[in-house]
Amino acid sequence: AFMTEISAAGKLKHPNIVTVYDAGQEHELNYLVMEYVPGQSLKAYGKGQKLLPPYRAIEVIMECCKALDYAHARGIVHRDIKPANIMLGKDGSVKLLDFGIAVSTTGDDGPNAVGPTLGTPNYMSPEQIRGKSLGPASDFYSLATVLFEMLTGKQLFKAKKVRDLFRIVVSEIAPKLADIRPDLPIELSEVIARALNKIPEQRFQSGEEMAEALRPVAEQLFVMKKRTEGQLSMIRHLRTLNFFRDFSDGEVAVFLTRAQRRDCHDGDLLIDSGTPNRDFSVIISGVVVVRYKGNITRVLGEGDTYGEFGFIRDDESPVQVVAHHDVSVLSVDPTFLGELSPKIHLHFYKRISEALVQKISAQEHFEIDLELSE
Measured at the alpha carbon of residue 323, what is the angle toward residues 318 and 324, in degrees to the nearest 5? Predict the structure, then answer.
């Protein structure tokens, strides 16, 4: 293991990997000169310990993803990813250490990727337990077990005997994060479930891929952490509205960071017919009236939307929208979509499509009635 550490770590120079400066033997004693990292390992959190804030736990794992991509690109699989081997510096840095049982995937140097079972049982992948050939996906499995523990305070699988633990890891489906932490975004549970797939090819194949899946979840959780009680109350209110019914608290919070609130009074003109309008708006309180060719076609209330046509087509508005008494709306323009996650895109366009269908149908009926009255 000592020579493995020298061989593996000596190749790795990365800000998220503890640097090995020197190694050798003195009076039959092996020694390593390593970077000193003031701080503590993830072992101080997780199982039976005080948990990190969820967004911070995800950030740590995303930093580890960078380190693993770097090592994997150089043909090195860590094989012993666990809380004790992930350091949190006092300066906020994240460092991966202990490549003592790492294997080379290139086959031209270092130990072979196939061999006896080595590692820490609670964090080993099914293929590692079987002594099969290991690739990057094995490390991402182990990383997911660490994330699961950081979020739940529990190890993924438990057994009194190692052989029983090995049998469970190989044969039983991993518990779902959503069943233990229903307060966290369901997307986080889905990311962990994918990384824990028994089939290596079905997992994330790179740290970049895994980090990309975690990024929007981390953003949601971070945004939620910064909300005041008043803002949290607003988020809860918005989720009662039809438009936001599929959004999570975190997704609504992210939406709010991109939206502009507008408070209007009776008679205020929100959209004028024949003028360009690209803003899409959701009514969060109050009532507005929609006029087409001088006639009131619709009365919209809390949870309803307007501005869909201009938002989609970048065209002049065919209708006039006027506030009826006091009204509050949230407005966004098309540029905001590029800053949001694909999941929020899906929710957004689902709602806007439904609104367009309803309004086109209502407009057709109104024009028919108007023609008949003439």
Answer: 125
The answer on pLDDT for 117 being more than 60 is: no
| Number of other CB atoms surrounding residue 193 within 10 Å | 17
Distance separating alpha carbons of residues 340 and 113, to the nearest angstrom: 40
Two domains, one topology: 2-225 and 229-373: no
pLDDT band at 85 (very low <50, low <70, confident <90, very high): very high
Handedness of CA 230, 185, 141, 10 (dihedral sign): negative
Which amino acid is present at 327? V
Which one, of 184, 207, 180, 185, lies nearest residue 77 by Cα?
207
Alpha carbons 148 and 177: distance in angstroms, whole number: 7
Return the pLDDT at 111.
39
Q: Which CATH number fits domain 2-225: 3.30.420.40, 1.10.510.10, 3.40.50.700, 1.50.10.20?
A: 1.10.510.10
The residue written with tokens 């009776």 in the block is 266
Catalytic entry in 69, 80, 139, 304: 80
To the query of whether residue 80 is one of the catalytic residues in this protein, the response is yes
pLDDT (tens digit, 9 = 90+) per residue, 28-42?
A: 787 777 888 888 899
Domain ranges for the chain, please list them: 2-225, 229-373
Identify the H or E element spanning 12.
Answer: none
Q: What residue type is assigned to position 215 of the chain?
A: R
CATH of 229-373, one of 2.60.120.10, 1.10.10.60, 3.30.110.30, 3.10.350.10: 2.60.120.10
User: From the centroid of its chain, how far is CA 160?
Assistant: 34
Render pLDDT for 126-162 as a digit per residue (tens, 0 to 9). Answer: 998 888 888 999 999 999 999 999 999 999 998 889 8
Q: Hey, what are 40's tokens?
A: 């503590």
In this structure, the number of other CB atoms found within 10 A of the CB of residue 296 comes to: 12
Interacting residues of 145 by C-beta distance below 8 A, sequence separation 6+ = 122, 123, 155, 156, 196
Residue 48 has pLDDT above 80, yes or no: no
Check if the beta carbon of residue 294 is closer than 8 Å to that of residue 328.
no
Predicted confidence at residue 192, as pLDDT, reads 97
